[in-house]
Design a protein that fits this description.
The protein is mainly beta. It has 5 domains: 208 residues, Trypsin-like serine proteases (Thrombin, subunit H, Beta Barrel), CATH 2.40.10; 209 residues, Thrombin, subunit H (Beta Barrel); 183 residues, Beta Barrel (Thrombin, subunit H); 225 residues, Thrombin, subunit H; 215 residues, Thrombin, subunit H, CATH 2.40.10.120. It is built from 10 helices and 68 strands. A 6-stranded antiparallel β-barrel has the order 9-10-11-15-14-13. A 6-stranded antiparallel β-barrel has the order 3-4-5-8-7-6. A 6-stranded antiparallel beta barrel has the order 23-24-25-28-27-26. This is Lectizyme. Belongs to the peptidase S1 family. Its main location: secreted.
Length: 1220
């Protein structure tokens, strides 16, 4: 594919340049001989028929040469050859033919306007000592800059022969305005895209047409034309004898670089090369920066808040806000959407125009812009993605290299993200040019290098970079370079806040410390300033919440353990953590070393604070504000109109009523109307067993672990009958049944025993989440569990024990406070039972907080305050309480508080009985429903078959579109889908598709392994063909989802395969990332695989194929199939369809991919491309955590098996020795 870098040239001449004839060749006059080693970018254009040199040129990539358009006028590519790598134009180096050539569409032979062309060589030429690609300048040098012109010119004017040796002459660079000034004679003939070169007492006026004009090591011009040589009057403004002073001129084409150039020049905009058209609905954060006068697009940008745009510094350096406008919400850069003026702009203080270091800027719009389907603020990444992460660059680029105009339609190209270290490595050719504020994107045979300067570079749905610069376009070894948007911190510099809560414990945000090394961290305490004073203490240990989600900042809390205790003083005080959430409207304060304005101000070295109003979670998520369901149960908010707390330092304290109520987490912009600051809710932290001892499930066989479907433990519970579990209301309130499962009969919360789903749940009607009153709930398991040595139902107490009775709390808690991880082993602690009256007495400090449905447990110097919420509190062998809440841990005077089981026993029994009755009714209805469902499906399939046969019989096959395997899809290559694998028999017969997610693991559909064993299968990776090529490896083991079953349709249809040996990433094998969030219905998706060539046929495509489909979530999909799908679609399924494309039989297990992430595994469908009957996929987002948990279990199982084998081997060896 021919790639052109759009170098738009505007030349106005009085003397037409030479035609492509050897007798008209230009010359270097009074130059000096040089060598090709000094000018390795210089090439000679020659006629094949004569072998004579007639024009110069410059090689800019492995197969592209830039020259003048007048050099190739009326010439065919087959007439030309290029000599490279030689000091002599008539010998040495290498000769390469020309495959294609292209002159600018607006080239004018009379005026030599747009006098530029490119040649595509017949074969690529590698770099060496004598051949080097030259970088095209990103900006025009300053007048007075030294420059060099080279070529095979004459040593005198007209009467001398061409020099056979390469010549060069040094000249002084002149900017356009200086060359067009009254100092010289050209005047208005010098147009906006022309520059000049001048040499006193030397002559460079005819220095090889098309040859290089080089300044500061970069190509700044292409030799185009000149007015004679030392002609009187060109110029004559220097009053010296002509014999003493000659002024000669050449006019050069100004090469505007990929991402730089004059601000208001339409010829300097960047480009997306070999990208595809997209829409603003897909990239609603994309904006176009435009000249306020002409309306021409010149750079891209990204909207991150209602009035802030991020772009590249080089786009706006030297400009005034009044010169700029921004077009938002349009797929087109010249129409549609809205156009808004710019009120202010700021580029980074450390921006370096030469190195493009800190190449980032922000614009403030004249008026706020609301979000819509075509305008969406994009979140800036908080951390740099990993190398290999798929990324997208978008902008209004060209569809080819050099000679195409800017596309009026938005374009995008997919590339691979490269971290700075990888981009600067020897794998690529930039080396030390890649600075610490840069990241890269690379795609072989694609080009993102010119993707609109300043435009968005997006990975994982977040802004990770702003398009900055690059060498050439799609040049092998030269990725595109981007300004690194993610937050950076210098060594020893402040980056987050925190709160000290005890002598050696600091609370902060999880996103501040996740993935950081302890050696990187230190804490400054007791100072008003973040860079001096107070004391600095190292960090000994850290722990962020097990459920922390870096994408949605859920459970965004962490604790640090200092490496030495810090005593309280006038400048250091431990703050108490709130036990309950304040009421909405409570005054609160946020403090930190934040900025005094948004984005463009540096951090304040002085401590800042702002007063805001506290908002409870429900209020923050209400329609009064604009976050909606982004506000999760572990979040609270703070809001202040016309004040800003959004940048009060992540991790810093949010304080109300003198207590720590929150940790600064995230927010949308700064002081944006309707967007409060969001904080981690300190009062909502779950509990643990502290300073307990290990026990076993045989000692506490009633203990159970409540887990999310991802397999992570979050609360305890007690089994009281074959299918009823008692726990705390606050553990399950507002949770979806599909999220829950219960592990029973195991000493460990992450393995062993049995795992059972939850069929129904009920928490007390009077449960109060603020004061944890009536904090009790029951769960009904989806199948009965029999008693054994590790599972025993516990009896509920009928009356409250006496104060002083010994009691035991158990659970999977920590062995210390805050900084210890949850124990995987069951723990217990002995405490003393306290009746309600005693717990509420003056002996302890709770007072009236202890209500009539509460009892307590206390042990001095022991701690049960965090003994797994919902877990059992047992005295005299009976369940007397359910772990509910407490004031921190082991605080003197503060017992642990439990829901009183004796007081709530009747409620538990009554509701358990209701479960039984409703279960019987439900069983009857379910049986009837299944019967009807079977009849409906059989009826539908029968009708479908009859219609299809009739259609075939009468030639109307279009009725059901049974054509190709992926209908209206297309053949593709493994490099485009390097995660795709073929699961096949040992005889190389394709069974199912799949995708590789790490070096050992392949994901596929569970139903693929209904009737086959691991040893009977192999996996082919890295090949476009399922029958040959790539790598073929065996399958060591596989695990099907524990809920998988196939009655009428498969449910929980997912499996993981462990392959027999590791497979590492290459160009044709890439691990795919599992999506964490579902796309919206309508999102563009890709399905690939080797399936049958039609529904009901046996032929399988040998060549990998793909189809573009439309993603549909479960809720929307249930309405398809004339509502028949409503019977079959579950919460772990999603769908995809278009009117004429679908996956087909044989594609089972293949990946459904959206924006480079795996969202589905092909499972089942009603047909192949049948309209209104989408294909159904296992929902990877819903099943992601099962995958992760299954991987851990698989690893542990193999580790245990390995240890067992080692022990057996050792035993056998010892036995043999004894026998000897």
């Amino acid at each position: 594919m021919f790639r052109y870098f759009l170098v738009l040239v505007s030349l106005s001449a009085v003397f037409a340049g030479p035609l492509p004839d050897e007798h008209t060749a230009a010359r270097i006059v009074n130059g000096v001989e040089t060598t090709i080693e000094i000018r390795p970018y210089q090439v000679s254009l020659q006629k094949i028929s004569t072998g004579n040199h007639y024009c110069g040129g410059s090689i800019i990539s492995e197969n592209i040469v830039v020259t003048a358009a007048h050099c190739v006028r009326n010439v065919e590519a087959s007439d030309l050859q290029v000599r490279l790598g030689s000091t002599y134009y008539n010998e040495g180096g290498i000769l390469v033919g020309v495959k294609a050539l292209k002159s600018h569409e607006q080239y004018d032979r009379e005026l030599l306007w747009h006098d530029i062309a490119i040649l595509k060589l017949e074969k690529p030429v590698k770099q060496s000592l004598t051949v080097r690609y030259i970088e095209m300048a990103k900006k025009v040098p300053k007048t007075g800059t030294s420059a060099v012109i080279s070529g095979w010119g004459t040593k005198c004017f007209l009467m001398c022969d061409l020099s056979t040796a390469l010549m060069e002459v040094e000249v002084t660079f002149l900017e356009r305005k200086d060359c067009a000034s009254k100092n010289y004679q050209y005047g208005e003939k010098i147009r906006e895209t022309m520059v000049c070169g001048y040499a006193k007492d030397k002559d460079s006026c005819q220095g090889d047409s098309g040859g290089p004009f080089v300044a500061e090591g970069k190509l700044v011009g292409v030799v185009s034309w000149g007015q004679g040589c030392a002609l009187d009057g060109y110029p004559d403004n220097i009053r010296e004898p002509i014999s003493k002073m000659f002024r000669y001129f050449l006019v050069f084409v100004a090469l505007s670089a990929v991402v730089a150039g004059p601000l208001h020049n339409k010829h300097t905009a960047g480009r997306i090369v070999n990208g595809v058209e997209t829409t603003i609905e897909k990239r609603p954060y994309q904006v176009s920066l435009q000249d306020a006068n002409s309306g021409n697009h010149f750079c891209g940008g990204s909207i991150i808040t209602e009035d802030i745009i991020v772009t590249a510094a080089h786009c706006v350096s030297g400009s005034n806000p009044s010169q700029l406008k921004v077009r938002l919400g349009s797929t087109y850069n010249n129409e549609g959407g809205i156009v808004v003026g710019v009120k202010a702009l700021k580029y980074h203080e450390k921006y370096d125009r030469d190195l493009l270091w800190y190449d980032i800027a922000v614009l403030k719009l004249e008026k706020p812009v609301k979000q819509s389907s075509t305008i969406r603020y994009i979140e800036m990444a908080k951390k740099v993605p990993k190398t290999g992460t798929p990324a997208v660059v978008s902008g209004w680029g060209t569809k080819c290299f050099v000679s195409c105009p800017l596309s009026p339609v938005l374009m995008e190209v997919e590339v691979t993200f490269l971290e700075r270290e990888d981009c600067a490595s020897k794998t690529y050719l930039y080396g030390e040019q890649i600075k610490e504020t840069m990241v890269c994107g690379y795609a072989k045979e694609k080009d993102a290098c010119q993707g609109d300067s300043g435009g968005p570079f997006v990975a994982d749905g977040k802004l990770v970079g702003a398009v900055s610069w690059g060498l050439g376009c799609a040049m092998d070894g030269y990725p595109g370079v981007y300004a690194d948007v993610s937050l950076q911190k210098e060594r020893g510099s402040h980056f987050c806040g925190g709160s000290i809560i005890s002598e050696d414990i600091v609370v902060t945000a999880a996103h501040c410390v996740a993935y950081k090394d302890l050696s990187e961290l230190q804490v400054r305490l007791g100072s008003t300033y973040n860079n001096e004073g107070g004391i600095v203490v190292g960090v000994k240990a850290m722990k962020y919440h097990e459920k922390f989600d870096g994408d949605i900042l859920w459970y965004d809390i962490a604790i640090l353990k200092l490496d030495k205790p810090v005593k309280q003083s006038s400048t250091i005080r431990y703050i108490e953590m709130a036990k309950k959430v304040p009421k909405t409207g409570t005054p609160a304060v946020v403090s930190g070393w934040g900025t005094k304005c948004f984005l463009t101000c540096p951090l304040s070295p002085v401590l800042m604070e702002v007063e805001v109003t506290f908002l409870e979670r429900e209020d923050c998520a209400s329609k009064t504000y604009l976050y909606g369901d982004k506000i999760k149960e572990t979040m609270v908010c703070g809001y202040a109109t016309a004040k800003d707390s959004c940048q009060g330092d992540s991790g810093g304290p949010f304080v109300a009523d003198g207590k720590l109520v929150g940790v600064v987490s995230w927010g949308q912009g700064c002081a944006m109307d309707g967007y409060p600051g969001v904080y981690s809710d300190v009062a909502a932290l779950p509990g643990r067993i502290v300073n307990g001892v290990e026990t076993t499930i045989e000692n506490r066989p009633y203990q159970v672990s409540l887990q999310k479907e991802r397999g992570s433990h979050f609360c305890g519970g007690s089994i009281i009958s074959e299918d009823i579990v008692v726990t705390a209301a606050h553990c399950v309130a507002y949770k979806d049944l599909s999220e829950l499962q219960v592990r029973l009969g195991s000493t460990y919360n992450n393995e062993g025993g049995i795992v059972v789903g939850v069929k129904a749940m009920k928490y007390h009607e009077k449960f109060d989440g603020d004061i944890l009153w009536y904090d009790i709930a029951i769960l009904k398991l989806d199948k009965p569990v029999k008693q054994s040595s590790t599972i025993r139902y516990i009896e509920m107490a009928k009356k409250v024990p006496k104060t002083g009775t010994p009691a035991v709390v158990s659970g999977w808690g920590t062995k210390c406070f805050s900084v210890c991880p949850l124990s995987p082993v069951l723990m217990e602690v002995e405490v003393t039972f306290l009746e309600r009256e005693d717990c509420a007495s003056n002996t302890y400090l709770y007072g009236e907080q202890i209500k009539e449905t509460m009892v307590c447990g206390y042990a001095k110097e022991k701690d049960a305050c965090q003994g797994d919420s919902g877990g059992p509190f047992v005295a005299e062998g009976k369940l007397v309480g359910v772990v509910s809440w407490g004031e921190r841990c082991a605080l003197d005077g503060y017992p642990g508080v439990y829901a009183d089981v004796a007081a709530l026993r009747n409620w538990v029994l009554d509701n358990a009985q209701k479960f039984l009755v409703s279960s019987e009714i439900r069983h009857y209805l379910t049986s009837t429903f299944k019967y009807l469902r079977t009849l409906i499906l059989m009826f539908y399939l029968t009708i479908t078959l009859i219609v299809t046969l009739l259609c075939v019989a009468f030639g109307e096959t279009h009725a059901w579109q049974w054509t190709k395997r992926i209908i209206s899809g297309e053949e593709t290559f493994i490099r485009s889908h390097p995660y795709q694998v073929s699961i096949q028999t040992k005889a190389h017969e394709h069974i199912c598709g799949g995708c590789i997610i790490n070096k050992f693991i392949v994901l596929t559909a569970a139903h693929c392994f209904d009737d086959i064993e691991p040893h009977e299968t192999k996996v082919r990776l890295g090949s476009t063909y399922y029958s040959k090529g790539g790598r073929l490896v065996g399958v060591k083991n596989f695990t099907l989802h524990y809920r998988y079953k196939f009655s009428i349709v498969p449910v929980y249809d997912i499996a993981i395969l462990k392959i027999s040996k590791p497979v590492y990433q290459t160009k044709t094998i890439r691990y795919i990332k599992l999506a964490k969030r579902r796309p919206r219905t309508g999102a563009r998706a890709v399905v690939s695989g080797w399936g049958t060539t039609g529904f009901g046929t046996n032929g399988i495509s040998v060549h990998l194929r793909k189809a573009i489909v439309r993603y549909i979530d479960a809720k929307d999909c249930a309405s398809f199939g004339r509502n028949i799908y409503r019977v079959f679609i579950t919460e772990t399924m999603i769908c995809a369809e278009t009117l004429d494309q679908a996956a087909c039989a044989g594609d089972s297990g293949s990946p459904l991919v959206v924006e480079g992430e795996l969202v589905g595994i092909a499972s089942w469908g009603a047909g192949c491309g049948a309209q209104n009957f989408p294909d159904v996929y296992a929902d990877v987002v819903a099943l992601r955590y099962w995958v992760n948990n299954a991987l851990k279990t698989l690893i542990k199982r193999e580790s245990s098996e390995k240890q067992r084998k080692q022990m057996v081997t050792k035993y056998n060896t010892n036995s043999e020795k004894r026998n000897e």
